[in-house]
Amino acid sequence: MKRKKILYLFLLLIIIIVSVYFFWDNNNNQESEFSISVSDAMSGNELDSYKKADKVIDFHFPEDYGPHEDFKLEWWYFTGNLKSSDNREFSYQFTIFRNALNNENLNINSNFSTNQLYFAHLGLSDINEEKHYCFEKFARGIKGLVTTNINPLEISIENWGIFADFPDSNYLLPIFKIKAETDSIKFDLSLKPEKKMVLHGDRGLSLKSNSGTASYYYSFTRINTEGKIEINKKEYSVKGYSWMDREWSTSALTKNQKGWDWFSIAFNDSTELMYFRLRDENSNTDFAKGTFVFENGNSEMIKSNEIKFDFKNFEKLKSGKTYPQKWRIQIPKYSTDITVETRIKEQEMKLSVNYYEGSIKVSGRNRNKKVAGLGFVELTGY
């Protein structure tokens, strides 16, 4: 018994040291002193013992809004472009991640035992002022720090959380809320999807390589959003549209995949586009896919050979890293030819995991008609 107690205390000490050293709550909008690439963060050992996204499944709700702890990694991801009552423009990202630290239950009768790490990223761009704020929060998946209720939904880390009620009997049109607060930023947003859920890839099985790595992936692509944002004690009432991604998997990036370019676009003709491109170490396309969402919410998968993608320019940021800032995307089968560019340059998430997450604007033609639009881009591995 004494030996078990000593082992438990030793494990607890190790968890605390690792959590404090690597995952200290960063609420000061400063670049983390410890920062790794997304490709490093998504690599790991002993992946064979986790469940994998390797076949088409039937999704079950509300359960599949909640965590899947038998998979290695997952996230609840929201982005949006909002405008205040006095015409100030903002964009935001709010994401909660779950990562299994190992593949074993600790089998210790204690509220402090867990093999799950939860962390959240919050980003806000003040478009008019060309300012970007970013914050992160970490916690072990234990009661009192992390809450994971299913119905009503709550995925929260302390005072940062995603919540949802389900007014429909089949749980497929949730009404979300996002709440988060730091010393300088406060979010309180209500989000109501205008379209049905989109299942990416093959009925929600989204391949990430030609060798079969994949995730389970669904989205709400057009979400009516309103609420309040507070910046340095000044409050703004805001309205606009958001995008929600829900994804879980075990398979990390393949050895030759070093990063990705991911786009979500809401056109002003009531259609949406998701496109991602995984890059090799020479920045060539290793794998790519997309989804086009029609006005009625129906969607079609876009194959890699059905889309043309070109970089138009790169710019060096204050961090010293160089990121693309403008692109051309063409999809001949929809007569789509658009230019995409960042709305402000400095939108890098300079946190423990370093990447670019920013608001974009779109112009060009879609289905042979002139369109504009807003969205988000995520860039890793640069």
Given the helix and strand composition, which structural class is it? mainly beta
Reported by name, the CATH topology is AttH-like fold
Number of strands: 24
Shape: globular
H-E string: HEHEEEEEEEEEEEEEEEEEEEEEEE
Q: Which spans of ≥5 residues are poorly predicted at pLDDT below 50?
A: 1-28
The total of helices stands at 2
- Computed Rg: 20 Å
**Percent range of helical residues:** under 10%
CATH class: Mainly Beta
Mean pLDDT, all residues: 88
- Which percent band covers the strand fraction? over 45%
Calculate the terminal CA-CA distance, rounded to whole Å.
51 Å
**Based on the structure given, which CATH architecture is correct?**
Beta Barrel
Total number of domains: 1
Question: What is the name of the CATH superfamily?
Answer: AttH-like domain
The main β sheet shows up as:
13 strands, antiparallel
Written overview of the protein:
There is one protein chain. The chain has helices spanning 2-22, 38-41, and strands at 36-37, 73-84, 89-100, 116-126, 131-140, 146-149, 153-157, 160-165, 175-181, 185-193, 198-199, 205-207, 214-231, 234-249, 259-267, 272-279, 285-293, 299-302, 308-316, 322-331, 336-342, 348-350, 353-366, 369-379. With 382 residues, it is mainly β. Strand 22 and strand 23 form a beta hairpin. Residues 1-28 have low confidence and may be disordered.
Features:
globular; 11-stranded mixed β-sheet; disordered N terminus; AttH-like fold; 53% strand; 382 residues
Briefly say what this structure is.
This protein is mainly beta and 382 residues long. It is 7% helix and 53% strand.
